[in-house]
Model the fold of this input.
Amino acid sequence: MLTAPTHARAAGSGVGIDVRNVSKTYVTRSAGSMLALAPVDLSLRPGEFVSIVGPSGCGKSTLLLIVAGLLSATQGEIRIDGERLTKPLTDVGIVFQDDLLLDFRTTLDNVLLQSDIRRAPDRPEAEATARGLLRQLGLEGAERKYPHQLSGGMRQRASLARALVHDPSILLMDEPFGALDALTRTQMRRDLEQLWLERQKTVLFITHGVEEAVGLSDRVIVMSPSPGRIVEDITVELPRPRPVELGDDRAYTEYTDRIYRIFHDHGVLR
Ligand SMILES: Nc1ncnc2c1ncn2[C@@H]1O[C@H](COP(=O)(O)OP(=O)(O)OP(=O)(O)O)[C@@H](O)[C@H]1O
Ligand SMILES: [Mg+2]
Done:
């Protein structure tokens, strides 16, 4: 039975996500069956920013794809705003490590890709939104440039604008800053926090970066090595907006130290 949404909300603001007892076993001809994700229970409140950190291969991307409705779970279910997910989510923006921009479209046209594919009647409105987002993300002047004329950071900003242009309630990010240099990555963290504070999307953010996870999140979910399961769910009570450089902040380093200790205890770090 479907559960009715439990709260009224403004369009585009976050919705709750429930991951209930979700596991994934991949079956391949060459390697047989492989448990990639042990049963996971996880709830995100509307507008919450939650990160997942865990070692390579523990099933983070698998979980994200299941939440997006792009991959079926072997067991368990996803509920979005109380309703069981049975097909790919549409009220979502997804950002991957690779920006996946199309080389033959300008920055602006990349952001408007979905709108053009759907031949949306509101193109002028979408274009105004896209231009506003690009401006907010520091890409004013890059609208008519092609991806090869942009830096890695600029490309990833364009891909973030593309994910947000239809004002989705949910933002799923899989190591979005993984390919960027440290400085650009820090700036992106700050800009993402700013966007999130203004727009209140529900964000599921996957990263290998312990500092990045603590710096951005309301909660950090720590996963064990493969087959991944949740070993800690840590609420981060640092005030926002958080400074670019949290470096020596005592409360901040207590969180990061705690996560590194968990990795150490699970043999991820020696
Ligand atoms: N389509 C697939 N078929 C078979 N096995 C897969 C498939 N996708 C992923 N796997 C395996 O499932 C496990 C989890 O993969 P997943 O990509 O979810 O890990 P991850 O935590 O995102 O890793 P990383 O941090 O390296 O991105 C890995 O052992 C991987 O090899
Ligand atoms: Mg991954």
Q: What stands out?
A: The helical segments are 60-67, 107-111, 113-117, 123-136, 152-164, 182-199, 210-216, 250-265. Strands lie at 17-28, 32-44, 49-53, 75-80, 83-84, 92-95, 170-174, 202-207, 219-223, 230-235. Confidence is low (pLDDT under 50) at residues 1-8.
